[in-house]
Each structure stands twice: as C-alpha cells, then as structure tokens.
Design brief:
This protein has about 1000 residues and is of the alpha+beta class. The chain contains 13 helices and 60 strands. It has a 17-stranded mixed β-sheet that branches. Strands 34, 35, 36, 37, 38, 39, 40, 41, 45 and 48 form a 10-stranded mixed β-sheet that branches. Strands 52, 53, 54, 55, 56, 57, 58, 59 and 60 form a 9-stranded mixed β-sheet that branches. A hairpin with an 8-residue loop joins β20 (about 375-380) and β21 (about 390-395). α3 (about 145-160) runs parallel beside α5 and α7 (about 425-435) runs parallel beside α9. The radius of gyration is 68 Å and the shape is elongated. The chain starts with 9 loop residues before the first helix and ends with a strand.
C-alpha cells in the first residue's frame, strides 16, 4: 500500500521501464479488465437468478387475520394480512404475474395434495435487516377449481385445528436494478382451523307459543371460533333432539368471526315431557346439566345453495350443555307477569291490602311450581325522566304453578298485605298512579322452582308488572246537579258525577273531601262518602256548600252559569279518610287530583228575567240637540219578574240594564237605553224585582232615526204602544254564598207604554186678545190638554200647532216650553190668527171665527199638526199627525154699552151715537160701522159710516162714536110716532159689521147685539 505522504505517479513508473516491459504492463492491464467484465456477466446472468430463487425458497410466509366473504359455488373473496420472513440478503420486490394455484397440502398419511383453486397475489416487498422480510396483503378473488375438493377441504377446515395451503406459481424478483423472471413459487401457508367449534355455551333458552305440539324457541348461544379466519356463511340451519322430541334451529346472516360469536337461533321443538323428564332425572347427578347435540343441516347463502359450504356445515355437530338451573332461571326471567284485576283497600299509614288475579305466560318448557320463600320487594320502576327505581314496600307471594303446552303458563292469585317501606316514596308513587296513564312495578326477590321431582333453589325473581293508572280520572261527566236550598253556611250543592276509571285497579277511597275551585280560586267544598273506585264508570254522589268571600269571583261564576255559558269548575282533592284513618301517602296523592267538572247551564222553562213593566216615564227633550235622538228618560218604578231556576234565596239589591228598542216592522233595533246599577229590591216571594232610574238617555242608533220618530209618533197617537225590547240585565244580590253581581242576563221581552191617545181631549176655557200686528191677531189662550197616559213629556222648547175653523187654517198656536204631565195640563198658548188674504175661503173662515168670538159664541176649531211643529226632528212626525177638535169660546162682554138716537123732522134727520166697550187686552180702533137697527123686530134704520176720525178705545174702556146719520127704513113720521109711543128710552137690536184694528191688525167682524139701551132725542 502506498501512503499518501509518498506519492508515486504512475506516469513515472513507465519512464523507468524498458519498452518491452512497458508493453507487457499494458497487456496485463487489459486482460485484468476483460476478466472483471466476464466475471460480472457470469454473476449477473448465472448466479443472480439462483440467489433470487434461493431467497424465495428459503423464505417463510405466514397469514394472520383472514376473511372469506361472498361465497358461491365458483368463488369467494379472500382478504388477509401476513408476513414474509427469512427472504435472503437483497432488497427486492416479488411479483406474481400469473394466478397462483392453491393446493390443500400436508394431508393425513401422505395423501396427495388436492387442487382447490387459484388466486392472484399482489406485489411483496422485502427489505430491512438481513435476512430480509416484508408484509403480505391479500385482497383477491379465490376461484374454485373443484367443488368436490373444496367440499372435502371445508369439512376438514371446520373440524381440524389447522390446515395447510400450498401456493404454487411463477414469480419475478427485482433487485439491484435487475429483474429476474421465471422464478418458481412453491410456498406452504399454515392457518388455524375451526377445531369443530367445540366450545359452545347457551346464554338463554326461551320458548314462545307455537302450533299444536310444537313449541317455538329462541336460543342464544356463544360459539367460540379458535381460528384466525372469519367466514361469511349466510343462514345456518340445524337439527337437534330434546328428549325424544325433534327440533330445528336457524340463525340468519351468520358471519363466524375469530373469537366468541353471539348467535341468536330461532326454531321449534316437539317436547315429549316423559322422555324429557327421564333425560333430566338421568342427568341430575351431573349438576343438572343436559347434553344437547345440534347437527348442521344446511346453509343458505346470499348466492343460493353452495355445495362445498353445505358439505362442511352438514359435517358440523355442536355439543351443547344445557344447565337446568339456568333454564329454570331463564323460565322465570323470560316469563311475562300480568294482572287482569287488582283491588286496593284497608289503606293505613304503613300498609294496604292487595287482592288481584292474573297470569304468568311464556314460562319456559318446564312444568313447575314456583314458590317465594321470603317477602319480595316492590319497586316503582320505569319512572319519568329515567329516575331510578324507588322501593315502596314488601309483600308475600303465593305459589304459582305453570304447566300446559310450552311455553308454560299459569294463573296468579294475590291476597296479601303490602307493607309500606317508605311513606314518602309511597306518596310519590300513589300520586303517579292516580294521575298517570300507566305505571310499572318491579317485583324483586328469591324464588324456588319444583320440577321433574327436583328442587331448583337460589333462583331470582325480577319481574316487571305493567298496570294501567287512573289517568287523573279525566273527563268526568255530571249526571245530576241541584242547588236545593241555602243557609248561613252557603248554598247547598247536591250533584252526581260519572267518573271513568281506565285502570284495572279497584281502590277503596273511603270518604273523599274536595275543594271546589273556579278560576283557580276556592268557591266551596264537596264530600263523597264511602267511595270505591272500580274499573269503568263509577257514579259518585257528592254533597257540599258553595261559599266565597270573593264577590268578584262568585259574580263571574254565577254570571257564566245563569247566562248560558255553563260552569267549568275544578274539583280538587283535599283529604281522604278510610277506616277512620288518613294515610299521609294516600292524602298527598289525593291532593294532586284535579277533576274538571263541566256543568251545563240550567234548562230554563222561562226566561230568567221577563215581564218588564214601566208604568210611568218622564221623557225630557234637550233643546241643545235638535235631532231629538237623545232623550233623557226617568221612571220612578220599574218592575220585572225574576225567574230563578233554583229555590235558594237571592236577595236582589241592585239592577243595571242595557236595552234595545226594536222596530216591529223591520225587527231592527232603533234605540238604546243603558241604565247603570241602581238600587233595587225583590218581593218576599223572590219573584218581582222593583227598581227605578233617573235621567238616563234613550239614544237613537245611527241610521235608525226614522224608526225612533215612528215610535214617538205611535206613543203620541195611540192609547198604548207595545214595543219589543232586548238586551241584558245585571243584578247585584246577597246570597248565602256571598255577595254577587250577575251580569249579562239576557232579556227578550216587550214593554207596554201608555200613549197620549192623540191628545184627543183639549179644552179652551177662555182666551184673551192681547194684540195685533201685520202678522195677525194675537191671543193668549189657556189650553187644557188631557194627558191620558202615565208618562210625562217635557219638550223644553216651544210646540206649534195650526188652528183650523170651517176647514180652513186660521192661525197657529205656540205652546211655550210644553210639558205634558199625566192628567190635565193647562198651557198658556200664544195664538196668532192670520190668513192668506188671497184665500177667500180662509178670509171668510177667519171673519166668522172673529165674529163669533166677539159675539161670545163658541167656535168649533181643530188643532192640526204644524208643518214645523218643533225643533226636534224625532218628534216632528208625531206632532204633525195631531188632529184634535175643540171649541174656542167667545168673549162674553157686549161691545155696545148704550147709544143715542136723535130724530129731527125738519130738516128731516135721524142720527145716532154708540158707546162701545173694548173687551180685549189690546187697544181697539173702530174705523167703519155698517149696521141695521131694529125695534121690536122691525128694522127702522141702517147705516154705513166710515168714522171721520177712527175711534181708539183703550183696554177695558168705553169709547163714544161720533154722531153719524142713519138711513130710515120707515118714514120719519112713522118713526116718530113709533118712538113716542115707547117713551124716552128704548132697546134696539143691531146687525152690524165693524171694520177695526186690534193693534195694527186690520179686520172686519160681523157683530149682532140685542137689547142695546138707547136714549131718544126727538126734535
């Protein structure tokens, strides 16, 4: 070796050599290179494949967890993982280009290998430390080459603890950048077999009802698979015998995994009891274990019948040991306990008596008698919101015998005393039982089974009993209800209720005391005696008192009840006593009971309020309201009949009313009157209510003004008016239950109102002419109007009527602030007499009327409705309809008090003067006198004289006319002779017409007067 500190250049070596030596050196170097190349080629192409093959041959392949899925007659899917070890000294990748044949190898006694099928192997990489190793991943389809071979193999695999496969095929290896093909794969892989599945345990054996002698069974088994192979089998079917009875079992969709497998098997068996008894008794010395052999029958895969898999299954025998003690326990555990009827009575603080009957079903395959040596514990289980079980007591159970066809069944008879272990817990349970729809008890304790002449002790009872609760005794219905009387303790309530108990439990509740509530507040109490609540409908009679100091509450309740809204009350449990005791647990539960009671309103044979009577009213108009649609109304007495459907005392102290007046023609309301609560009283018989009201408004409903006007018209023109009314009445009352106000009592009635009869009786005792002007002659006329009704009408404004005489309107009367009270009313009417001067008939009628008046004569007149009789629109039709006849008296004082008659023969002249009284209450001006003078029935002279100076005569004064000429009818001599015969005085009769003015009212009256004293003057 040449050290680096003394380098010698190769070039220097050649410089020291001779030419011949240099030539030999070159030849030696070339041969060495050639030799190295040849060696490398021999190593690669001759030694490399041998190295690769040796690595394959010397390696070991192991498979771990392996699964067989989707089996069919031609293939199955194979998945698995494993390792390759001892794989030489080169890192390499092994590939298998062609399917690998799988042989069942290492068979017994040198039997030749059997070809099973082919599969594809994926690449295997080896590396790491020497010797190299790698992993194997299988995910391939195993194609079956021969079903017969596969069936023989499957049988072996199921029974053997292990088996071997020979994997045979071609391989290639890649290493050092080179690939070596056409290598051989012959590798044995050993896997664990199923070893006959000898480890089988029964977890449960449960019979259910079957057909005929056949009993359906469910068997839960645990099968231990010692192999690392998982195989998808499909549905397995087995045959077995129990005693001499044939049975079948099947398990659906079975995949046998490595380790323990829970298989639920369903099937049926014909049980031969005698043979089974013999089998049991023969095995009783072996710890009560019965060996059971279950033989594979066939398998049904998803792909149908698989021959090779069926061959393997048919070879399978499962040997099972059935532990009788466990079967007896399972018979108890799997059984169902039900109670068809139950009765609870004799409840005390610490116990109750329980009687019941029921059934045990699905009690296994053994005829047995079950006994319970110690008291069993009773738990309330399946509590709301997952609350833990709560022990409520203990009780003894009688023996229960099960027999008959499997699964066995038997009856239960309870007659026991339950000792309450915790009164608080019992109270919680009883509350749930009374209010809930269902509850569950868990019965826990020890049990012993007698079967086949053997005694199986140490068994446990843990059984759920499901019972129906009382469901809160919902929806009770009232069968009777009465309030027969009352006293200081309240109104007596007597009622019956049909209460449905949905439970199968009968419970003796003893005496029940209830709190009666309305709107969640107490209004009284009820008691029911000796109540036994049986399943179904229970008729419970209750007696109690209605009383409350809450007036508003009582008022709301009675209003609802008496006005057709029915009555909804809650009857709440208050206390319960049984056998003279009040168990706290029962009382706490009873206090949670709430019975909603719905009472219909009483069926009324007559309205609660009827016979409305308003004997007298005062109607006051408001001058500020020209519509007349708001009329202040008062009535000193209003009565109505109160027809209570119950006999208890109701002392009415106040009444309020809301009424609508109804138009008979249209049936529509036209006016309202709302009367506030006012004092009222009721007669001793409790039938007639009396009240009054003052200054309450009868108000028209908008749009119904014409109907109100018609109503007032009918009152005006008719003797009486019966008007329909409807509305509501509210009454305050004192009752033995408390003070109440019953609101909204419906009223549908009619009220009769006395009418004015058209004001048909009008008397005018006198009148006074008080003036005159261009509008007419003015009079003050005391008018006596008879109001035949009991009602007062206050107009609070003037009323106008027309006056007609001889069929013609001759004036108008104004009745100031008219008030019509019942009976006679004297109204100082202001009358204005006037006519249309162009209406000759009217002018004549007025002249006649005035003439009659001045002559003291009575003139028939008619009071006729004026076109605008009042400011109130609602009263205009009524007043316009007036047509009342009366008599207008004349003034009684003669106009001509006396006079003079002067006769002069030469020159011939006949003259007169008249002394005239003004009987009016206004100045009288005489303008023209046309007269005819008679003596003893003979006209002696006439005159038509216009006064040169009108004679004005003041009120009550006498004025003397100027002397004016008379036109003699006889000769003056005859007149003179006649007058001389009469002496110095005489009386004459006149027929006159007098043109005059009263005030400034111009008129002419025809005036006739007899017996006028005349002083004679003869010349």
């Amino acid at each position: 070796m040449v050290k680096a500190s003394h380098p010698i250049a190769l070039g220097n070596i050649g410089k020291n050599l001779t030419p011949r030596r240099r030539k030999m050196l070159v030849i030696c170097c070339g041969v060495s290179v050639l030799f190295l190349i040849i060696f490398a080629l021999v190593a690669v192409f001759a030694i490399g494949p041998a190295i690769a093959q040796a690595a394959i041959n010397g390696s070991t392949m192991n498979l771990g967890a392996t699964s067989i899925t989707s089996p069919s007659n031609t293939s199955f899917q194979l998945q698995g993982t494993g390792t390759v070890t001892n794989a030489g000294f080169l890192n390499a990748q092994l590939n298998f280009p062609d399917p690998v044949s799988v042989y069942w190898t290492n068979r017994d006694s040198g039997v030749p290998d059997l070809l099973l099928g082919t599969l594809s192997l994926s690449q295997v990489s080896v590396g790491g430390a020497i010797p190299k190793s790698g992993s194997v991943n299988l995910a391939t389809t195993f194609n079956i080459a021969d079903q017969s071979n596969m069936g023989a193999f499957a049988t072996y695999m199921i029974h053997a603890p292990s088996f071997s496969w020979l994997l045979s095929g071609t391989a290639s290896a890649s290493a050092l950048g080179l690939t070596f093909n056409n290598l051989k794969l012959n590798k044995v892989v050993t896997l664990g077999g199923f070893a006959g599945l000898t480890k089988v345990n029964i977890k449960s054996f449960s019979p259910t009802a079957g057909q005929g002698n056949s009993t359906s069974i469910a068997v839960e088994t645990v099968i231990s698979n010692p192999s690392n192979i998982t195989i998808e089998m499909g549905s397995l079917f087995f045959k077995f015998k129990l005693g001499t009875g044939d049975g079948t079992l099947s398990s659906q969709n079975v995949t046998m995994s490595s380790g323990d497998n829970d298989l639920m098997m369903q099937g049926s068996v014909n049980i031969a009891t005698d043979a089974l008894t013999a089998q049991v008794q023969s095995s009783s010395t072996s710890n009560n274990v019965i060996p059971l052999s279950v033989q594979g029958d066939h398998v049904e895969s998803k792909s149908g019948h698989i021959g090779w898999l069926n061959q393997g299954i048919q070879s399978l025998t499962l040997n099972i040991n059935m532990n009788l003690t466990d079967i007896a326990q399972n018979s108890i555990t799997g059984s169902s306990l039900s109670l068809s009827s139950t009765s609870i009575d004799q409840a005390t603080e610490n116990s109750l008596h329980l009687v019941g009957a029921g059934f045990v079903t699905n009690a296994g395959v053994l005829d047995a008698t079950l006994s319970f040596p110690d008291p069993i514990s009773v738990y309330w289980t399946a509590r709301p919101e997952g609350a833990p079980d709560l022990q409520i007591g203990t009780m003894t159970l009688s023996n229960v015998t099960v027999s008959g066809p499997a699964p066995k069944s038997g009856s239960i008879n309870l007659d026991t005393t339950m000792k309450i272990s915790d009164t608080t817990a019992m109270g919680q349970f009883a509350t749930f039982m009374i209010n809930g729809d269902a509850f569950s008890w868990k019965l826990v304790g020890g049990a012993t089974a007698q079967a086949f002449g053997l005694s199986f002790t140490g068994l446990t009872l843990s059984k759920i009993v499901n019972l129906k609760g009382f469901g809160g005794l919902r929806n009770p219905s009232v069968t009777s209800f009465n309030l027969p009387d009352s006293d200081a303790t309240g109104i007596h309530v007597v009622t019956g209720a049909a209460i449905n108990n949905p439970s199968t439990i009968t419970i003796n509740m003893g005496n029940m005391n209830f709190d009666m509530q309305f709107n969640n507040q107490s209004v009284g109490s009820l008691t029911a005696q000796n109540v036994i609540m049986a399943p179904g409908t229970n008729n419970v009679n209750m007696d109690g008192r209605l009383k409350s100091s809450n007036s508003q509450l009582l008022s709301s309740m009675m209003t609802q009840f008496l006005t057709g809204g029915g009555l909804n009350v809650n009857v709440l449990g208050n206390s319960v006593s049984t056998n003279g005791q009040q168990p706290s647990w029962l009382n706490s539960a009873f206090r949670t009971l709430s019975l909603p009671i719905s009472l219909p309103s009483p069926k009324l044979t007559q309205p609660l309020v009827s016979g409305l009577s308003i004997p007298a009213m005062t109607l006051q108009m408001n001058s500020q309201d020209p519509s007349g649609g708001n009329i202040a109304t008062s009535a000193p007495v209003v009565t109505t009949n109160f027809n209570s459907p119950f006999p208890f005392h109701i002392g009415i102290t106040g009444v309020a009313t809301n009424l609508q007046f109804i138009d008979q023609a249209s049936g529509q309301p036209f006016a309202n009157i709302n009367l506030p609560m006012g004092p009222a009283s009721i007669d001793s018989a409790g039938k007639v209510v009396t009240t009054s009201f003052s200054q309450q408004y009868l108000t028209v409903i908008p749009g119904q003004e014409a109907q109100l006007a018609n109503f007032l018209k009918q009152i005006t023109i008719s003797n009486s008016v019966t008007i329909p009314v409807k509305g509501t009445v509210s009454a305050s009352a004192n009752t033995d239950a408390g003070s109440v106000t019953i609101s909204g009592i419906p009223l549908s009635d009619s009220v009769t109102i006395s009418g004015l009869s058209g004001l048909s009786s009008v008397t005018i005792p006198s009148s006074s002419v008080v003036g005159g002007d261009s509008n007419g002659l003015q009079l003050t006329v005391p008018t006596q109007i008879q109001n035949p009704s009991s009602n007062t009408l206050q107009f609070n404004s003037d009323v106008f009527v027309d006056l007609a005489a001889n069929g013609q309107k001759v004036g108008t009367a104004r009745m100031p602030n008219l008030v019509l009270q019942p009976g006679s009313n004297t109204i100082m009417s202001a009358v204005t007499l006037f006519v249309d001067p162009n209406n000759a008939a009217a002018v004549t009628a007025l002249r006649k009327s005035l003439s009659a008046y001045m002559m003291g004569q009575t003139t028939p007149i008619t009071l006729v409705g004026n076109a605008n009789p009042t400011i109130y629109r609602s009263l205009q039709p009524a007043l316009q309809s007036l047509n009342v006849g009366s008599n207008f008296p004349g003034q009684t004082k003669p106009l001509v008090q006396s006079g003079t008659l002067s006769l002069q023969l030469l020159p011939p002249a006949l003259q007169t003067t008249l002394n005239i009284l003004n009987p009016l209450e206004a100045p009288l001006t005489l303008q023209r006198i046309t007269t005819s003078i008679s003596v003893n029935g003979k006209v002696i002279a006439t005159a038509d004289h216009a006064l040169a100076s009108p004679l004005i005569i003041q009120v009550g004064q006498v004025g003397t006319t100027e002397k004016f000429d008379l036109t003699p009818v006889l000769s003056l001599i005859d007149i003179q002779v006649a007058l001389k015969a009469l002496g110095g005085t005489l009386t004459v009769d006149t027929v006159s017409s007098i043109q005059n003015m009263v005030g400034s009212f111009q008129n002419i009256v025809d005036y006739n007067q007899n017996g006028i004293p005349i002083q004679l003057k003869l010349f």
